[in-house]
Amino acid sequence: MTSDPSADRDDRASPVPPQAPREGEDLTIEMLDLPREECLRLLASQSFGRLAVSMGERAPVVRPVNYLFDESSESVVFRTAVGSGFQALLQSAEAAFEIDGIEEYARTGWSVIMIGVAGEITNPNEISRLDGLALDSWAPGQKAHWMRIRAATVSGRRILLPPEEVLGYPA
Questions:
Q1: Residue 69 forms part of a structural domain
Q2: What is the per-residue DSSP string for 99-167?
Q3: Residue 97 in contact with residue 149, Cβ under 8 Å?
Q4: Would you state the pLDDT for residue 138?
Q5: Distance from C-alpha of 68 to C-alpha of 134, rounded to nearest angstrom
Q6: Is residue 39 part of a domain?
Q7: Which of 45, 80, 121, 154 is 20 to 30 Å from 135 at the Cα level?
Q8: Rg of the Cα trace of the chain?
């Protein structure tokens, strides 16, 4: 008799609790700092993040952006429109870039923050190379300026689930 491996899958315990935790119940057992290599891998695996730029005495500007992670320069690269105030603001400004992933029901997730100096990419060879990577921008309009933030500092954290026995599943 042969067994159907997909039939076993339905009977196995899920890592997600069968019901949401009660208010005030803390099922999290650990917050793990991610090594730089893992942060860079996560940056390369995503295409949407949030860019924050300080405006001196005023409140920081935070914008969602579609991006690519350029592994060769350890940079987040994205496009802006010609003459946009955001593009002008980014010239040689210190910026922070954040991505995250969550599993809301399980109350787990991760976050990566990269800090560096933003600047426009002007080298024609580099622009040509980046144009070949096919960045998909969700925002309408022409985005003629390539911008980058080099990863001066990168940090990340991951919230881990407690072991299955804490969640009520057999170990």
A1: yes
A2: EEEEETTTTEEEEEEEEEEEEE---HHHHHHHHTT-----SSS---EEEEEE-SEEEEEEEEPPPTTTT
A3: yes
A4: 80
A5: 9
A6: yes
A7: 154
A8: 21
Integer Cα distance of 171 and 159 in angstroms: 20
pLDDT of residue 8: 37
User: Could you tell me if residue 2 is inside a domain?
Assistant: no
Q: What is the dihedral angle through the alpha carbons of 140, 142, 148, 149, rounded to the nearest 10 degrees?
A: -30
The tally of domains found in the chain comes to 1
| Distance (Å, whole) CA 22 – CA 97 | 33
**Pairing mode, strands 153-160 and 145-150:** unpaired
24: tokens are: 């005030």
Q: In b/e form, how buried is each residue of 56-70, taking b as 16+ CB within 10 angstroms?
A: eeeeebeeebbbbbb
Distance CA 161, CA 143 (A): 41
Q: Which residues of the chain have pLDDT under 70?
A: 1-29, 83-89, 91-92, 162-171
Give per-residue pLDDT as tens, 104-124.
877 789 999 999 988 888 999
Q: Residue 114 domain-assigned?
A: yes
CATH number at residue 39: 2.30.110.10
